[in-house]
Amino acid sequence: MTDSPLASFLLPDGFARPGLATLLNETSLGPELARYVLRAHDQRLSRLSRPHHRRPAHRATEPVLLVPGFLAGDWTLTLMAKTLRERGFRTYRSGITANVGCTLDAATLLESRLEEIVDRTDRRVQIVGHSLGGMLARGIAVRRPDLVSGIVTMGSPMLAPGAHHGLLSRGVEALVALNRFGVPGVMSAECVAGSCARESFEESREAMPDGVGFTAIYSRRDGIVDWRACVDPEGHPVEVTASHVGMAVDPRVIDHVGAALRRQADVASTPSLRIA
To answer: Would the N or C end of the chain have less CB density within 10 A of its end CB?
Structure first.
């Protein structure tokens, strides 16, 4: 992996970085976004045509924290959050403006955010993470099962974080260069090739704690990461037909996310907790 700034252990044998032809699958983002707009329009018309007392009134009890992917911020999951709220979920933002910093620092930020939500709601939290956001969720679930009742990952290459397209490697290189020039809050070489990277990777490979649900959503049409790296044997696999970026907006994927959240809420062994 000489053309990547990431450590070789992040790309184990059996996985590969997607090529140019696979990247073309990401051009379906436009149709996927259009599908969301059309679905939202149809549902709005349907709601307006029904008497108020016949509209669904169910509400999920567990809060849901949404975590964006690499180079992305909370705004990328705005449409998903809106849909989940319409279906009764209580959604929360991660507080990440741009996911470009050290993964350990990001995990610490999310851990604090989870503590705030648990303290406020007296409920453990389910995490929905897109790409890198899912890998962060995986590690936090291992570290703090007292805060997390379940996770749903979307296109998160937990088995091989280095199995991504070369364009992402260029992005990582740029961030590391900025860090060397003294720009704060961006990844350093240690974050992608040193002990920091190894700690994050090893934590995300530990066994999931009892009582924490795990659904891994993946797509064979993923043009950014090797879809095989997203199928964690610890999780319940769900295959979708979407691009990597489009998973955040495709209503069919959001349907699967909502179903996974409800399924995991139903089987959670500890429905309520407060931080000691």
So the answer is: C
